[in-house]
Structure formats: structure tokens, C-alpha cells
């Protein structure tokens, strides 16, 4: 089977999109996203995509006094590449399932190869 | 003739047939199915929009395809693979640390100690029960003395983006 550039619908759900699938299970949870510029935003996870871009609703900046410019902002889209951490509620995570998925993901070609091959 | 566009005057008819717009093709929205496989699920931009479907491009002759660059997988759906492979790549060593406590060194003078629950080829990780240590250098303006101190923070469950990771290791008992 030739692997096409478009994301094949027949691949097992784990392959190459482990954390994308993981975040999809967390939609609706309250999370805190810490960005690389040290800004931390708490909000409800609305959606996520394959790049781990994040959409948050009902946001509140963690240290509001330091970052007053976000006070009127209710929801936001965060580019995945600027995220440093995402703090998650521990009870929303099935660690056994996650570890299992990570073990399976390791058997397949890593996602790191994906970015290097762009063929037109 | 009816339906003739600039396109099919220049290209052979095969191309024109594929790229000629069908009347009404821009109208009518087919919603993306969020459960269809992975990678085509709901993206943040798609929450209010939907995407148009385009016909796939015909395969080009005499040019590289993915199969030339990446070896095609031997099976469409891999059977449960054996837990250990003969060749131990660096990521296999990380796999051995699943469900174990690990030490992660990050950019920005940060370190994490926590239990590894998941990781991928980018070194994105989910850690549980994690303690973050940030090393800060304070400089006294008068004496120009550099004071090194650490700030610690705790999280029950933390996703770490891989592009900040420098190294992963079993924790050293300091």
C-alpha cells in the first residue's frame, strides 16, 4: 500500500496522531496552557487539531495582574508550536490506556519523519 | 461552447476534464466527519467552517512518490508487534521508561521529574505527578553577585511539547 500524502483514513487511530487523539478525549475539560512566552491561560478545551493547535473558551489568564491585555478576551486560538505545557486534570486521563497506545506507537515509524518528506 | 473556460483552451482535454468546474460545485457544504480516521477530524478552524472536497491529483509520471522515499508498510493494519525489537534505537530506550519515573531536561533552564505515561517521535510527552524545577540567576545590581536559585512547581498531569525537550533520562538520585 502506497502511503499517500493525504492523511489515510485506514491507518489505526494511534499511528502518528497519538497526542491528537489524546487531546480529543479531553475536549470539554478545563486545562491550563502554558506558553513559551511564560503566559499561562486557563480555559475549557474546545477543539484541537493534528498540529496540536488549541482552541480555548472562557479563558482566564493565570497571573492576570501581569498580563492585563487579555482581560476582555473570552476565547482564543493557540498555535501548537507556542505551547510549552498543558496542565491536565489527572482524573480525565486513563494512564493505562495512554501507556498502551504509546507502546504501540513506538513500533511504527516516528512522526518526526513526517515533516521531512514533502513531495509534490 | 458552453462551459468552456480558459483552462481547457491551454491544456489537453484530460486535464481540462479533471479541473473543469462542475456547475454548482462551490455551493452546498459537505461537513467534515470528525470520526473519520485521524488527521481529518475537527480542526479548530473547522468548528464554524467546512472544507470543500477536491478531486485527488492524478499521479505524476517520472517523479518521486511517497513510496520512493518512505518504505511502504508491509501490512495495512499492523498486528500487535513484539514488545522488544532487535535494534534498540534511542526512542526504544525511552519506551523502556514508560510507567517509570524519568528526568527531563528542557530548554529555558527547566527540568522535570515525573512518571512517563506517553511519548512520541517528537518527544511530546505526558507526565504524571511531575515536579518542575526552574533555575533562575538573580544578579545583584550593587555587588554584581550572581545568585542561583531554583523555583519548583508541581502538576498532577502535564503534557510537554517535544520541541522544548533536550534530554530524557532515568532520574538520578541526588
TrEMBL record, chain A:
One of its GO terms (cellular component) is catalytic step 2 spliceosome. PANTHER family: SNRNP CORE PROTEIN FAMILY MEMBER, U6 SNRNA-ASSOCIATED SM-LIKE PROTEIN LSM2. It is found in: Nucleus. It holds the Pfam family LSM. Keywords: mRNA processing, mRNA splicing, Nucleus, Ribonucleoprotein, RNA-binding, Spliceosome. Belongs to the snRNP Sm proteins family. InterPro entries: LSM_dom_sf, Sm, Sm_dom_euk/arc, U6_snRNA_Lsm2. The keyword Manganese does not apply. GO terms for biological process: mRNA splicing, via spliceosome. GO terms for molecular function: RNA binding. CDD domains: LSm2 (cd01725). This is LSM domain-containing protein. Residues 18-92 form the Sm domain. SUPFAM superfamilies: Sm-like ribonucleoproteins. SMART domains: Sm.
Automatic annotation (TrEMBL), chain B:
Its main location: nucleus. It is found in: Nucleus. InterPro entries: Lsm3, LSM_dom_sf, Sm, Sm-like_LSM3, Sm_dom_euk/arc. GO terms for cellular component: Lsm2-8 complex; spliceosomal complex. Residues 1-10 have a biased composition (Polar residues). Residues 89-174 form the Sm domain. Coiled coil: none annotated. GO terms for molecular function: RNA binding. Keywords: mRNA processing, mRNA splicing, Nucleus, Ribonucleoprotein, RNA-binding, Spliceosome. One of its GO terms (biological process) is mRNA splicing, via spliceosome. Residues 1-65 are annotated as: Disordered. Belongs to the snRNP Sm proteins family. PANTHER family: U6 SNRNA-ASSOCIATED SM-LIKE PROTEIN LSM3. This is Sm domain-containing protein.
Amino acid at each position: 500500500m502506497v502511503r499517500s500524502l493525504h492523511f489515510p483514513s485506514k491507518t489505526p487511530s494511534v499511528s502518528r496522531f497519538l497526542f491528537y487523539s489524546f487531546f480529543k478525549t479531553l475536549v470539554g475539560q478545563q486545562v491550563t496552557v502554558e506558553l513559551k512566552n511564560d503566559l499561562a491561560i486557563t480555559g475549557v478545551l474546545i477543539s484541537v487539531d493534528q498540529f496540536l493547535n488549541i482552541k480555548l473558551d472562557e479563558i482566564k489568564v493565570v497571573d492576570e495582574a501581569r498580563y492585563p491585555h487579555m482581560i476582555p478576551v473570552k476565547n482564543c486560538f493557540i498555535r501548537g508550536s507556542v505551547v510549552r505545557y498543558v496542565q491536565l486534570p489527572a482524573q480525565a486521563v486513563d494512564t493505562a490506556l495512554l501507556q498502551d497506545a504509546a507502546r504501540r506507537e513506538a513500533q511504527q515509524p516516528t512522526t518526526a519523519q513526517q515533516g521531512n518528506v514533502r513531495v509534490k | 461552447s458552453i462551459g468552456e473556460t480558459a483552462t481547457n483552451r491551454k491544456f489537453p482535454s484530460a486535464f481540462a476534464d479533471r479541473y473543469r468546474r462542475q456547475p454548482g460545485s462551490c455551493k452546498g457544504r459537505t461537513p467534515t466527519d470528525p470520526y473519520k480516521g485521524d488527521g481529518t477530524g475537527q480542526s479548530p478552524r473547522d468548528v464554524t467552517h467546512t472544507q470543500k472536497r477536491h478531486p485527488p491529483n492524478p499521479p505524476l509520471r517520472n517523479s518521486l512518490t511517497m513510496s520512493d522515499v518512505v518504505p511502504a508498510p508491509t501490512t495495512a493494519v499492523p498486528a500487535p508487534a513484539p514488545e522488544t525489537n532487535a535494534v534498540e534505537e534511542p526512542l526504544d530506550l525511552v519506551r523502556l521508561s514508560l510507567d517509570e519515573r524519568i528526568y527531563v531536561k528542557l530548554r529555558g533552564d527547566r527540568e522535570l521529574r515525573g512518571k512517563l505515561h506517553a511519548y512520541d517521535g517528537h518527544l511530546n510527552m505526558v507526565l504524571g505527578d511531575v515536579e518542575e524545577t526552574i533555575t533562575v540567576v538573580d544578579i545583584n545590581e550593587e555587588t554584581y553577585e550572581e545568585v542561583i536559585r531554583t523555583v519548583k512547581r508541581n502538576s498532577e498531569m502535564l503534557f510537554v511539547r517535544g520541541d522544548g525537550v533536550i534530554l530524557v533520562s532515568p532520574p538520578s538520585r541526588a
